[in-house]
Amino acid sequence: MNKTLVGVALVALVALGLSIGCCLKCCHKVAVVDLPAVVGNSAQVQALQAEQNAKGQELAQWLQNAQNEVNAQSDNKKKEALLQQYNAEFAQRREALAAQYAQKLQEVDASITQTIAETAKKMGYKMVLAKGVTVYGGDDITEDVKKVIK
Question: Given a cut of 80, is residue 136 above it in pLDDT?
Fold first, then answer.
């Protein structure tokens, strides 16, 4: 699985490099953005992380209550049945929480990407690259984007 992901990432980087080379011939104004700095500054991301932490704590409390109920059961057969029930419910709750988080994270990512694109267009840039993959060149618009993202 990891080898496949690495292979796909390498192919994507090569394709990105080739497309960048072709595009740079056409457009001269290129911007770079420090994505981790923008994401870290985003109120949407901070709110999502706080919400995820709160839901994680709720799930941990629910799990503790379930464990206490199982431990309070004296009949071993009932204890085993209760344990299986709670294990299944825990897995279901955990998967639902992860799915909700992934969906919201995808929405936040789309919002940040759109904000970066709009900010760059307003400033007259034709292309924006991630600062982490840019070796040389490009105007850093990170601070401009961070002001809009807040």
Answer: yes
